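Changelog-adjacent note: as of this version, every example in the card shows the full chain rather than a window. The one below runs 205 residues end to end.
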Amino acid sequence: MDFINNTPVASFILIFTVITSIYAFNDHSVMAKFILSPYNVARRHKIYTLITSGFIHADWMHLIFNMLTFFSFGFALESIIGSVNFGILYFVSLVASDLPTVFKHKNDTWYHSLGASGAISAVLFSSILFTPFSTIYIMPIPIGIWTLVFGPLYLAYCVYAAKQGRDNINHDAHFFGALSGVILTIVLVPGVIPNFLHQIAAKIG
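Full-length structure tokens:
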């Protein structure tokens, strides 16, 4: 139970997201109530879904992937920046990551979005500023790559995939969530950029 005491915000987010997502799998009325509809939000209806859509997922694979990523980076990040800052970063990024989607699809009655990917992208990119040379594994690549290398590749892929629009994934939320994570970390944690650059210089040197 130490992790709940030491990282209460990350613990709450993980547990609540899992419970709410599983509940929504079995109750489509909850899914319909929580899911983000840019058309409705743009008309000032169901604005709360900017938050609630981050606590439901499309299926088990979506949920498991997001929670594994969150578990890998979220708890360590809260330990570094503190619970208050972590909570601000997560929930502000959750909203900020979806706002471009609302503007982009404000007239599309058919478009809906759900999942915590935007906020989790923020957590991941915030973590990169503190540990740029930690490794991340991406299937099917058999070796880990530095998060510092992964970051730009991830952003480039998000831009490419969003333009292609060939899947049902909200790549815009991933991209803007990542940017939100970087910007909020710089605001909330003074000195993070000099420390980031120092780590890079030390590695190169």
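Structural remarks: The beta strands are 135-136, 145-146.
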